[in-house]
Amino acid sequence: MASDINAKLRQKQYEAAVLEFAGDRKGYFVVASDDPQFASLLRQTLTKHLAIPGDAMSTVANPDHILRELKNVTMRRKTVLLFLERILEGRDTNLLVRQLKSAYPDLKIIVITGETERNRLVLLHEVGADNFITKPVSMNTLIEKMAFTIKPLGKLGQLIDQAREFVHQNLPEQGIKLCRQILELKPGSAAGYLVMGEAYQHLGKLDKARECYEEASRNAELYLEPLRRLADIHGEMGEPTEQLRYLERLDQLSPLNVERKVDMGAIHLELGNQEKADELFDTAVQQATREALSYIADISGRIAGIYNGRDPQRAEHFLRRALDAKGDMLDASDLDTFNRLGIALRRQGKWQEALTEYHKALRVAPEDENLFYNMGMACAEGRDFREARANMLKALTINPELPRRDPVMAYNIGLVFMRAGGREYAERCLNIALELDPGFTKAREALERLG
């Protein structure tokens, strides 16, 4: 009971922070998303749950229009909280995050993402993302994320914000004084040492600033900002070897930053390490190429999605272009494209060609149950029920709960086993289909035929 009360009190605190932002701080919410469900949830949260006027929010679906929208809003002296999809119209937005933070340093950005690799999120955080939301998200979690992004809760967070504000207002001595209070409240505070370092750097006391950044890094090993500041300090002090040491530590924590690899290569070249410089430059070009090819593949995939269902031949064409764009850089992230290509081929009756594509996909994802399910379906469509059964068994071995994902999937697996002589599996899957959808007539009829 006490924990429930505490949870409700915390939620009220989060709601109060968002309401204060919208009211006292003239907050405005910009949603850069092509996901109508997320935009609808945010609007419902703001207008219905928190009673914030609807004119405090706008939605942008085209990434090329975001800067224009931010300009219009900031001209009205609004404080902006931006929700930005990690992938918007097929584009990875990490470069856009960097540009937006450069143009609007005080802008708060929450990146909206599905499941994605950690290194990608680390890069986004490094270039300016303040927080992340993983979809699907509940209303309470959405409010909590907004509250923590808008305003640090608790006395310590507010003091750190105040100290940082002193430094930005060209009052570094007052910032240092407040940081000492912060460190008394929380000895070893990485954020406290970081702001103190900023203040000393502002005063031109680089040795003192370096000591503060080193303390910040020691107290928070995964905190990127102290390492970045240390690299900059040693660059200012004309110490390329030490600068390189910190850049290398940053690269270990955030390996997807192409610009940093170029900076590291330049220092190696300056130090006479031609071979290492060339290696870093080559890696940077390969990484940039991979990102460019991924963009081309994403655009081709989007076009295929438009054709999907209405013209499977055109969908096939663009899905092949998406895979061809990646060349020999295919990985598990391309699995969805392979699956969609297989479905487009099967809709044209090309089940054997679909199998060929699924086998290619197995090279990058040999333990993916969806692949084996789709292979089973392709074989069944070609009336090779023996092979269909083998693929469905492999899918169920990898994930025994696969039929519970969807009633149609459970029904399809059940049909394959009916025709391939697997009565026990057929009965179980058809029962699951009915459990998930009691009105599934075809599954009921199949069970009756089985019995």
Automatic annotation (TrEMBL):
<dbReference type="InterPro" id="IPR019734">
    <property type="entry name" value="TPR_rpt"/>
</dbReference>
<dbReference type="InterPro" id="IPR011990">
    <property type="entry name" value="TPR-like_helical_dom_sf"/>
</dbReference>
<dbReference type="GO" id="GO:0000160">
    <property type="term" value="P:phosphorelay signal transduction system"/>
</dbReference>
<dbReference type="InterPro" id="IPR011006">
    <property type="entry name" value="CheY-like_superfamily"/>
</dbReference>
<protein>
    <submittedName>
        <fullName>TPR domain protein/response regulator receiver domain protein</fullName>
    </submittedName>
</protein>
<dbReference type="Pfam" id="PF00072">
    <property type="entry name" value="Response_reg"/>
</dbReference>
<feature type="repeat" description="TPR">
    <location>
        <begin position="335"/>
        <end position="368"/>
    </location>
</feature>
<dbReference type="Pfam" id="PF13181">
    <property type="entry name" value="TPR_8"/>
</dbReference>
<feature type="repeat" description="TPR">
    <location>
        <begin position="369"/>
        <end position="402"/>
    </location>
</feature>
<keyword id="KW-0802">TPR repeat</keyword>
<dbReference type="Pfam" id="PF13424">
    <property type="entry name" value="TPR_12"/>
</dbReference>
<feature type="domain" description="Response regulatory">
    <location>
        <begin position="28"/>
        <end position="150"/>
    </location>
</feature>
<dbReference type="InterPro" id="IPR001789">
    <property type="entry name" value="Sig_transdc_resp-reg_receiver"/>
</dbReference>
